[in-house]
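User: Batch of two.

Assistant: Item 1 of 2:
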Amino acid sequence: MSIRTLIRGGLVITAADELHADVLVEDGRVTALAAHGSDTAEGWTAGAGRVLDAAGKYVIPGGVDAHTHMELPFGGTSASDTFETGTRAAAWGGTTTIVDFAVQSRGRALREGLDTWYDKADGKCAVDYGFHMILSDVNEGTLKEMDLLVGEGVTSFKLFMAYPGVFYSDDGQILRAMQRASGNSGLIMMHAENGIAIDVLVEQALARGETDPRYHGEVRKALLEAEATHRAIQLARVAGSPLYVVHVSAEEAVAELAAARDKGLPVFGETCPQYLFLSTDNLAEPDFEGAKYVCSTPLRPREHQAALWRGLRTDDLQVVSTDHCPFCFKGQKELGRGDFSKIPNGLPGVENRMDLLHQAVLDGHITRRRWIEIACATPARMFGLYPQKGTIAPGSDADIVLYDPHAEQVVSARTHHMNVDYSAYEGKRITGRVDTVLSRGEPVIQNGEFTGRAGHGTFVPRSACQYL
């Protein structure tokens, strides 16, 4: 039984409302909200075992990061954050739920891959977690297993149009998986890049001696992201399946999503902070520093950012996740010296997302409520977690962040808590900082200290996508 907690005097912000209210938390859940100073709110004070003063602060739902890769094997190495270090860093950044990706190995069962990820996470996580399932080998057996996974709360399945020989599925396999999802209420997530064509361009670039990190962005062309996005949408239409396109980075891909949504199709899009705040300028940094920014889809020229922000405002893009997949510069990113195609793909970011998006509010890109919508409420709805997660309402889990909108900070690897030796946003000045974080009513960040523990976070089974 957790301590009865009263959060007093803050501005409660959800995707739907902004109101000056006190929040009562009992047994890990939100019990009630009442106007600050009202008789009801004042009556709560005597019985509260913990009173948190939120005067001058925002009271927001804990963030839901629906795209992380803790301990992911990739390119001969593994992502440097474990479930323990990664979820602790998430908490520091105001994220209280992650949805990570379990991986099916080729020739093996989905069950085996999922159980491997259960074992990695069990007893390690500081905040709550769920799983998507990566399909690497679509066949009759794995199609039947999809139904079983939906039944235990793993309701989304990721396929890749990229990485031939590793995760790649051809159009026929993709169609079969989509057809299965259309009948079992699963949601297909798609890495949309034309990997076959990209591999040709990689081979040609290396043959010309173009080996530096910046060529990673040049061969993974925006048009090949747009083409794959278009193809995925048409396959989903044929299958009668919903589609969620991950890490959208290019203006042309946003246009494909917008056109599909204008037709009323159940097509959704996610982008990530790296595409909103970084660009090919970072990939071109000298002395191999650009390797820090190698991810796929790749960073784009800065002019693509306006289309991404516009897509977030018009709801042609619905979610901002991190695709957190960190590799240390020393010893991991360096595997690609002399050959950009061997640089492990991925950036750290699970700790930075909520702060960067608050800065976007101050910069005029989005509103406060849209901040909460794209970072908390919509990912929770998209992946069957709402209203348990993603909002502050009676009955919801008390995943709550007290956020200081006036505190200033400078992002740096010296002060972050992710297990990686660089920050993708090193030196960036941000206004706004997490002050206190509750996970199911328990303080995990308080007074500048981590007060949580490994194993507090529990697996959360998910229902179907709530936009269908």
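Item 2 of 2:
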Amino acid sequence: MIVCKFGGTSVASAEQIQKVANIVKSNPARKIVAVSAPGKRSDDDIKVTDLLIQLANAALQHENTEEKLQTVVIRFRAIADGLGLDHAICDVIAEDLRERVQGDKTNVELFIDSIKAAGEDNNAKLIAAYFNAIGMPARYISPKEGLVVNDLPERTFALPEAYANLAPLKDTKEIIVFPGFFGYTKAGVLRTFDRGGSDITGSILAAAVEAELYENFTDVDCVFSANPKVVNDPVEIKEITYREMRELSYAGFSVFHDEALMPVYKIGVPVNIKNTNNPLAPGTRIVPSRPATGRPVTGISADSGFSTLYVSKYLMNREVGFGRKLLQILEDENISYEHTPSGLDDISVIMRSNQLTPENEARIISRVKEELHAEYVEMRHGFSMIVIVGEGMRHNTGLAARAATAISETGANIEMINQGSSEVSLVFGVLQEYENRILQALYEEFFAHAKAK
């Protein structure tokens, strides 16, 4: 069995959904299809998810929601018309949206989650209806029928019983169309996964049915060794390990969500990134292990939006529990951290800036000064993390020196260096303004020069 997931651009219009149907029909092993909400049809278009967020905000502000609701319905109606479907499916979608808008608004986060999930949920219903209309026996299944997730306040993840609940889908005779992006708690509360959540849903399904392959269809032929919007004509990656892809996805590779690898990684289901618009292209395979190549670096990625909590205290290294107490303060504010480079008398905690507000930032600084008696505390913003990834890095000497030299030639200062314990990645913290220049310089060092040789 093959589980396949189709992203927002792959299901953005009737024409795209027809391509999806042809892809699914071309291989009888493709029995489970996870789908996103309709994405952009062009660069200046608006995703259905963004329209739904506008609808949710209008409802929360007690505005008249009918106009915004109809904007969403019109998008789905255009798809239905293009597929030759009866408008009855649009009536179902409109009624579903009205029920969601009238839902409990006590918890704003959960209310917005419910509205956002309508994009994936209703698109799955529409696509299942289309498959049946063209003679492809299909069935829509709601995540409520098995995809059990945890309760607040932790970020959303599938509970172990979700896999057992979904395992019987391996025996399906029909094509299962399953909405991505969300699940339900044991109490029946809808919760969404993080960005790229449909990737996570597809991965959960693939692991649950122990699929032979998880195909992730998007709008590019493969994964590239660097961002093609920054680097001209980057090298294509034909095969990459789970660990390499996890590191690259964490630091800005938007093709595949980093959390989506965990379910398939646990049982060794290979993943194939493919292009809906060019399905015959081999794509990029993500596998448990791969043969060594002559190139130590597989890919280079960069992500912005990081902040650093810098703490200095003389003889910090002699103080038992200092690091634990510092991280406890962040935990109390429900903030996760990414790296903790340290010296004898100072430590930096690097975190995603979107977790910070002026209020919790002030509380953190105040508590570190008062409770840990730090001599100097500062929150710094505007950092990017540059990540160099490759299974072959551990067998190559001088790689960090080559990278540092390339970065220095851009005029940037390296604020932080962190070598992963697995030696698959090397992370450099730099000021955000240098991000693209550094990415280009590192690509030139590890790919362009090697290619020229």
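The mean pLDDT is 92.
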